[in-house]
Amino acid sequence: MKATVKWVDGAMFLAESGSGHSVVMDGPEDHGGRNMGVRPMEMLLLGMGGCASFDVMSMLNKSRQDVSDCRCELEAERADAVPAVFTKIHLRFIVSGRNLKDAHVKRAVELSAEKYCSASIMMEAAGVDVSHSYEVIELV
């Protein structure tokens, strides 16, 4: 896997993935940025949510669950010192659909956390307190 990050100006950078997709990262004005993109640490959090959501949806699709929506809300805490590493991250999945089996959603979230999500498992290995929860919303 490869990526390139190119400085644009101030605290703005253009990041390009090996698959050819780009994203702008920028800092706040008090750090020389113009607030025109996500912060680099936000990118880590977004990547972790994307990785876990990909796992959960993959497993729910394989178990033939009729999912209409899956949202992963992440909340993180960072150290007050430099480096301001993540100390705690909570992933909350809200899964909506018809005739969803709670056990399938629970198992998908657990398997993502314990076995499949490279990003959250890597964060845990680095000492971050990572937790997960879920909610199932039955649509009528």
Number of helices: 3
Alpha carbon gap, first and last residue? 43 Å
- Taken as a percent bin, the fraction of beta residues is 35-45%
Helix content: 25-40%
Verbal overview:
The protein is an alpha+beta fold. 33% of the residues lie in helices and 38% in strands. It is built from 3 helices and 6 strands; from the N terminus they run βββαββααβ. The chain has helices spanning 40-62, 102-116, 118-125, and strands at 3-9, 12-17, 22-25, 66-78, 86-98, 129-138. The strands form 2 sheets. It has a 3-stranded antiparallel sheet, with no helix packed on it. Strands 4-5-6 form a 3-stranded mixed sheet. A hairpin with a 7-residue loop joins strand 4 (66-78) and strand 5. The radius of gyration is 17 Å and the shape is elongated. The chain starts with a strand and ends with a strand. The mean pLDDT is 97.
Main traits of this protein?
single chain; 3 helices; three-stranded antiparallel sheet; 140 residues; 6 strands; alpha+beta; 33% helix; elongated
Topology, please?
Layout: E1 3-9, E2 12-17, E3 22-25, H1 40-62, E4 66-78, E5 86-98, H2 102-116, H3 118-125, E6 129-138
Parallel strand pairs: 5-6
Antiparallel strand pairs: 1-2, 2-3, 4-5
Helix pairs in contact: 1-2
